[in-house]
Amino acid sequence: MNVFKIHKQIRSIGYNYGLPVWVVDFGVGVSYQPEELLKKMATLGLKEKDWVVVRNSLNEKGIGVFVDALGYIKCRAEIEAYGRNKTPGWFTKASRWTVYWDGNETFNFGSLRRGQDMVIYQKLEDVQSNDLIEQGLLTTEQVNFDEVMRYRIRVYPGEKIVK
Q1: Which residues lie across from 118 on neighbouring strands?
Q2: Domains in the chain and their CATH numbers?
Q3: Pick from 35, 101, 120, 134: CA 20 to 30 A from residue 113's CA?
């Protein structure tokens, strides 16, 4: 598995909003085996009951083993994915999923679990009326309160784009 960055942050979106989490960004970087990555995180201070947010990972070989191992050491994994990603066979091993709507329905949105997983939209007009799963809106724009109330959607401040 290629790891770009391991860091800690306060979660700014989803069910874990406001909580301290570990973030593992996969991408061009250091290559680890799942057990080596766990050892590395343990030396950085990973403890039992910590949340680990895993990003850009669905194409990484060994990620299912890593997520399973997190559960074994009593840590919880939240996976970030996009609609264009294929739902992996190890889907249920993750404690939580946050899936970003990108207009593509390759991901099996029907597999998301109520009260546990979340779909995040970036435009209010993309929001679909769906009472089965929690939905969020990530935006830098002002939103119409009545529209947000109609969908009963959580609103998160998006990152400000610096020009």
Answers
A1: 98, 134
A2: 2-157 (3.20.20.70)
A3: 35
| Amino acid 161: pLDDT | 42
pLDDT digits (tens, 9 = 90+) for 11-62: 999 999 999 999 999 999 999 999 999 999 999 999 999 999 999 988 889 9
Any idea which residue has 């990003």 for tokens? 55
β-partners of residue 78 are: 53, 96
Q: Which residues pair with 80 in a beta bridge?
A: 98
**3-class DSSP state for residue 90?**
coil
Task: Quote the CA–CA distance of 116 and 120 in Å, as a whole number.
Answer: 13
Are 98 and 14 a contacting pair, CB within 8 Å?
Answer: yes
State which H helix or E strand residue 8 sits in: strand 2-10
**CA-wise closest residue to 24 among 6, 11, 37, 39:** 6
Ramachandran class of 153: left when φ > 0, alpha when ψ lies in -120 to 50, beta otherwise: beta
- d(C-alpha 41, C-alpha 103), whole Å: 34
Residue 132: pLDDT band with limits 50, 70, 90: low
CA atoms within 13 A on the CB side of 102: 12
